[in-house]
Amino acid sequence: MSRPKRKLQKRFVVFCEGDTEYNYIDKMRDVKRQDVQIALKPVNMHGGGCSSFLKKLKTESQTNCLAKFIIVDADRLTKHYEEKDSFLQLTEYCRLQNKKGTIPHFLIVNNPDFEYAACLHIPEYKGQEAAKYLQMVLGFQSLEQFKKSTDVYEHLNNGERSYQVLIQKIQGKDKFVKNTYSVKKKNFEITISRTDVTWEMLGRKGSNIEEFFDVIDW
Predict the structure, then answer these.
(1) Distance between CA 139 and CA 202 in Å, rounded?
(2) Is 193 helix (H, G, I), strand (E, B) or coil?
(3) What is the per-residue pLDDT across 177-204, written as a single tens digit (0 to 9) for each?
């Protein structure tokens, strides 16, 4: 009698800025692909900025997973003076963890916010103001209603709308933050050799969230 085939699991922890990101990632959990199970553990930071992310990362430093993703919005860097120092500390912490070669820390920045990244799921989106566009196209009465929706993943991955459209729109573009990494999928080995921050890009819309989709191999 043949031995049952062993099912492998890829486990990732995703630290999310707020409800919208959390609800999006939450619907992607425990996805099976061939003989590999992708397990995503989203952690809702409920805002609070980069200092909250840093504190949470330090308290959960021993979490067992293949990689950690820290998904933040860039708009706080332009709205709050003290946020830049917190962001620099967060970036340096991620670099230090990656240098140690233990659990890779992917700093993912949506610029200005996740709402912009959400709009990029829609093929027809041409850079209009994100809040109004989401209300007009997806039928939400307000931006707050969109942010609280537990079905945000389904709304953005329906018909021609897709995270793949998002990836196509941002791939190869200049980034505010970019991680240089390698993934050996045979043994699930992930390493980050450097994390670059280009401050000149802070005033331009963009995202490096395609790194998240690439690494988890959705």
Answers:
(1) 30
(2) strand
(3) 999 999 987 888 999 999 999 999 999 9
List, for residues 128-180, the tens digit of each pLDDT value. 999 999 999 999 999 999 998 999 999 999 999 999 999 999 999 999 999 99
Alpha carbon distance 69, 71 (integer Å):
6
Asked if 179 and 112 touch (Cβ cutoff 8 Å), the reply is: no
Category of 139 on φ-ψ map: left (φ > 0), alpha (ψ -120 to 50) or beta: left
Estimate to the nearest angstrom the gap between the alpha carbon of 131 and the chain centroid: 19
The gap from C-alpha 207 to its chain's centroid, in whole angstroms, comes to 9
* Cα 192 → chain centroid: 16
What backbone phi and psi angles, to 5 degrees, belong to 54? -60, -45
Can you give the pTM of this predicted structure? 0.91
Q: What's the token pair of residue 117?
A: 């990244």
